[in-house]
Specification:
Blueprint (H helix, E strand, L loop, with lengths): L1 E2 L4 E2 L3 H18 L15 H12 L4 H15 L9 H16 L3
Antiparallel strand pairs: 1-2
Length: 104
């Protein structure tokens, strides 16, 4: 179980796996501030993983996920340059969603 704002939230094994994969993709592949190789910064993007997962559970399309990541990069990280590779990251995240929920 994970602690949520309202209380304890019980996540299925598939959702736990998806959350882990989202966190890894954001840290190692998206990594807009270049901390992917820094163990001390492993949780740098973790707060965004839950938001992305929630968006995915509500049926958000890849474009919506990509736009969210662009907003985070530009508005919260001060990196407003043209999209680095958010569309590709959103596709990777979507593939993980399919993978995590297609298991028997």
């Amino acid at each position: 179980m994970l602690r949520g704002k309202i209380g304890w939230v019980r996540l299925s094994e598939n959702n736990i796996e998806l959350l882990r994969r989202i966190d890894e993709v954001l840290h190692y592949l998206w990594d807009p501030i270049g901390v992917g190789g820094v163990p001390e910064a492993r949780d740098e993007y973790s707060s965004y993983a839950g938001v992305v997962q929630s968006m995915m559970k509500k049926g958000a399309e890849c474009k919506e996920i990509s736009q969210y990541l662009v907003r985070i990069r530009a508005d919260h990280m001060g990196r407003p340059e043209e999209s680095l590779h958010e569309d590709e990251i959103a596709e990777i995240l979507d593939n993980w969603k399919v993978n995590c929920f297609s298991r028997i």
